[in-house]
Amino acid sequence: MSQLSSPAPRRSQRDRKQAKNFISVQHPSKKRRRQDVDSASDEEMEDLADEMPSSEDSDTEKDDAYKAAPVVRKTAARGRGRPKGSVATTRKPRVAKAKAPSRPKKIREVEEDAAADTPGVAKDVAISDDNVLFNALLNPSAALQSTAEDFLDSFEQSAEPALADVINCILRACGCNASVNSDEATDSDGVVDTLETLMEDAKKQTTQPYPLVSKLPAFRKFRRSISELFHRLVSASAELGILYDSDLIPTLQTWLVPMSSAQLRSFRHTATVIALDLESALAEVAAEVEKEAEVVRRQLDAERKKRGGGRAGKATPRENELEGKAQEVKARRTKMTEYLKEFFDGVFMNRYRDHDPGIRAECVHEMGVWLKKHPAHFLDGNYLRYVGWVLSDTNTHVRLEAVKALTSLYAKPDYLVSLHHFTERFKPRLVKMATSDVDVAVRVAVIGVLGAIEAQGLLEEEQREQLCLLVFDTEAKVRRAVAGPVRTVWEEAVAARLVGKKAGAKEKQRAGVKSLAELLLRWAKALERGHGGIEQEESQEEGPEKPKEIAALMSGSMKGRVALCVEALWDEVEAVQDWEALLEQLLMDHSAEVGSGVGGPSPVSKRRKMGKKKADDNVVDEVWRLEEVEEAVLLEVLLAALRKALAEAQAGKKSDEEAVQTEMTRVLIKALPRLFVKHQSDEGRIADVLLIPQLMNLDMYLEMSLVTAYETLWDDVSKQFLSHSSSTVLQNAISTIRHLVSATSLSNTNSSKIVELEDELSSSLRDAIAGRHELEIVTFTEDEVHALGAIAARIATLFGSRDLTRWMEEDEGGKQSSAWDIISALAERGRLGDKQEEKMIDQVLQILALHITWKARGLTAEVDPPPEQEQFRESLREQRDSLLEKLTEYAVGSQSTPSEGVKRAAFHSLLSIHILFGKPPTLASGNLRSPLLSLPLEMAEDVQLRCAAFVQAEIERYAEELEQEADGGGKSDGDDTVQGESDSEEDEGRGGAKQKKAKKAKKAKAKKVVEKDGTPDPPTLSQHMLEREYIFSSIASTFLRAIRTGAIDVQHCVVLLAHFGRLGTTFDQCAKVIVEVLREEGMYKGNGEAVAQVITQALQESFDLYMDGSAKTEAHSIALAKALAAALVIRGAHLSITRRLDSPHVVEIHEKCMSWILKRIAGYENNKNKTMKAKAIEFFRVLLPLLLTVERGEAQDIKKRLDSEIELGKFEISATSKVWEPQRAYEKRLVTALSKSLCPTTAAPGRGKKAAIHKSAEQIATDDERDHTDAPDVGMSSPPRPPPRPKPRPKARPTRKGKTTPDAEAEADRDGQEQEPTSEAPVTDAEKPVAARNSASSSPLSDAPPSRKRPRDEGDDENAEVAGDGGEGERRDALTDLAQHQPTEQPSSPGSQASISEFKSRRKRARR
User: Fold this and answer.
1) Which of 125, 725, 1009, 1236 could bridge across to 790 with cysteines, CB 3.0–4.6 Å?
2) CA angle 417, 418, 419 (to 5 degrees)
3) Which Pfam families does the UniProt record give (predicted)?
4) How far apart are the first and last CA of the chain?
5) Taking phi first (over 0 means left), then psi (-120 to 50 degrees means alpha), and beta for anything else, what does residue 1137 get?
6) Would the pLDDT of 311 be above 90?
7) 374 falls in which pLDDT band (50, 70, 90)?
8) Residues with Cβ < 8 Å from 308, sequence gap 6 or more?
């Protein structure tokens, strides 16, 4: 029988005391030990015992305060955790465990002493220490179970003072020092008025973070402590019966419900947390009552059966007793249901859509706790729908809490029936979250939920496929999370393939391999369809023709899609781990039909000649027969499985690694020749086979006396290298050749084989041009061009990893032409501009550049070199100059018309050679001299200009392609729409409207491609555009590298800077390197004039893009100005400025820019072109970021020039004109720069307090709210300046009436951060109460998720207006007066000092 059924509390042995206020005494002898103290050593326990006061001191404390009678305590009551059960047991003596402490003793003692000093903590945080319950929460040594029991003793004696204590504890938790008395605590009708008074008092206090959000060490465990206290309070009151027949819970509800809708966040957040914790504790008690009711019902049914079922008769005493008990339990269950409903309706239904995401997350988290503790009540559609609604919350943490709540539910199969309706309703949303949520943790958690749903067969086939496609996701955590559902699908596929067959272990293994290949292939095709199947197919068809920049990315060292999938499925799918089974099935001949052979006897005849078992192993059944595409996929799986097996062995012992690699080598030595023979005709498959030897231990060939097999391996690799032209095959073959050459034990074989390979390349080159003269102009057939391109590609690939300079210059004593002469002659064909020869010329130019690079290694730094070195230098100079002449002509020349690919290749090689032979960086030792200085090289100025023009052309071409990609052919669609509407207006009246809507949606979708600063969003680009972006980035980075090394003058970087912010984040990251170059040039090399010229020209050209319509907004120019502002200063610790660009150059930047734009404005004004004039004035917004670091003298010079230019241009600038707002913002920033240095002492006193208030408010604000609390930039969105009032001289104005105190303004500022952003027009101050009432009118029980509502914060009306103004009008007028009355030549004159004095006074009033 449960203790909950006891009619009276089991504390009759205690003596009743006279009614007095609750005072909890924490006896030192009964201090609660935390887990780390429990695990302390015996010596630490002795130290703690020595620190305890004597028993006399304890007796004195007992006499002075309320003494609680001895009570039977739970064993678990000594810990900080929540009690697990309801059975009370006698406390046993503690036995210290000899276990190492989790933290050092000294550090732990210091932390505990600091935290236990409650008065000191209260003084530091400005919270009163007059409440015993709140002090217990701050004391980590306090036993909260004892505190709760002592409170209930006091509550039994006198309820009203005890209720006042607990309400005051809640107020202290809110950071409020005001208190309520017994009458106010129990006056339910006056709670709202009392709360308003308390909040007004709280606003007058010093703004401090309240305990729940404070970062102070004293409040580190406050959230857990307050939850534990109220949980223990509810649990203990339920054991005593106080919970059901007292005013404890009703009083708490009366206070917490209105507090949870309070205007101050501290009250609202704290009350919500406590109410949710009370609901959790009540749910646990309600679950116990529910279990007790079920037990009593069963007992009553059993007793009735004993009496004779439904026969009439007098009930037995036992039956009467059980019936009475059942009525009592029913009454308690009804009471608990009322409590749960009142807290849910009054708190949760309003706060789960609070504007603060922290409060929303608290609500959703506790909902998950309720679902676990009391599923009989909360596992219902009326409660589950709230969890489903917050799955679409904008905050990541809230969505994650909702998914965690569902995870615990779906983990229990018994709940699936109750969750069926919820699953069907929100299943699409869960799938969408798993595939496209922005947070990885949310996606992983949702995949776990969908895995549980899939285990019950509740997902549709399309949804299962979407879930399985995540095995190819870019996030490793997502791939690992989806491995479980993939394994389920794979097992089903294997079972379906073996239906009707009596399959053994071997058959199941082969069917598993077949199913794995089939699934991977099907999912890969589905993924390609989902990401633009047509484009993918086209890109695959054009694979061999990809530029070399893209082909370089497809090297064997990069992990492909299948390799990442294998790593994710390694621990889940058995077929992935068994690489030997994969290899065995790949070696089988899957082209022969069952029962018939190819070129020999059928399998049936073989079965008669050899044993039946061996014959069965060689027969390919239709169940596991592989298609060619499936074999290609399985080869990738095999390669990834071999790598993973080695990686797993490397993570273990060294002996395990050697054993695994040795066994792997033994198997592959026999299998590799067969794999080469079987897959040599397919480029994709042979590329994977070529990578397998790199995983072998080549010394095994010598140990096993298989040198002949090693030579065969060399021959196979060389054969593939000499017979294929695919860049992927060539790269993989060369990497394998490097691995073979690294085997020193087989160096003789390696040397002979590499020489044979070079001879084969030389012979193939000469055979290809045999009988041809004048290679520069001779006509080649298409096959000959292809053959020469393949030979050049092989030479270039081998040249990239091996020095072939001697091979290139070998001419056998003049008997034949050298490879250098042949390849140079072929390079001359680049002038013809033949598109078919583009790939060949590209490879030829690369070979020549590699030859120069390798040969430069032979240079020496000798000043007087020997004749051999002189001859070597002269030969290298001739070859280099000859090549540079070709490269210059092809890249930036005008005498020939090479193709685009040849131009790019020549541009890369041209700059690379100039970088190599340019001015080297300073060496570590001054005595050292670079060998490259013996052949110095400098690029001519006209060549630099033409290189910059080449980069400009590439930028314009790429920008046009980006625009077309963003528009998606919108122009042609729009033309078709207009034509359709003009053709038939009657028939397509409604259709035209639909087309307009579709067009608007299309434009909106296109806008999403571009970020706020005009940068395209990289994930939305197609594969073609990603490849194009990589090629373009390689050109930009090469040009930037030349600027960085000094090969090209820094003034040419304007070409890149002008397009900052509009060509993607990759380009912007490259362009930011220029800022470092400019900073170094201006402040370390003394080239400030060039820096000023670059910045000025870059800003002007960038803004010209906006003026001529190439850019839709000036956002990219503003982003450029912000980036260039970093080139004007060097910052040190704490953002302090340690170095500046010289003032004349800073002023020069502004003066030139102002003169340039004001001339253009004057021209537009004369032409009456208002649109262009308005666009030109926006340039002042671009100049605003450059004013952030100007000094007073610089600002003064700039202000003079601005005034003179405006006067010279005779511009009429109205103070209320919206068009001239950027110019006024620029001028205002100048005046602000003047005032900073003018009166540094005036702004000091008030700034500290305001900064402290802002800091505390920032600590309270959440992530979403910080986006709204940031003050707008002065130049971005400052309101129009009102016209200045005529004043002959500045006079002091009286303080504005109606202003609130600074504390109230700070509170209004803080609370004003909670305004919810909407897509509609902003609500004015007068309309805010109406908007709040409208948002609260939606029913929380409707089918659709109600709109998020929030109580109207204090300060939303008149206080918000005062806080929002902040004295801005007075400050603005003061700054204007200062600018007007500031002397230019004698700043220390009496008039100037009077202006300064007046400015100081106005600044003080403005801060107030």
Assistant:
1) 725
2) 90
3) HEAT_SCC3-SA, SCD, STAG
4) 68
5) beta
6) no
7) very high
8) none
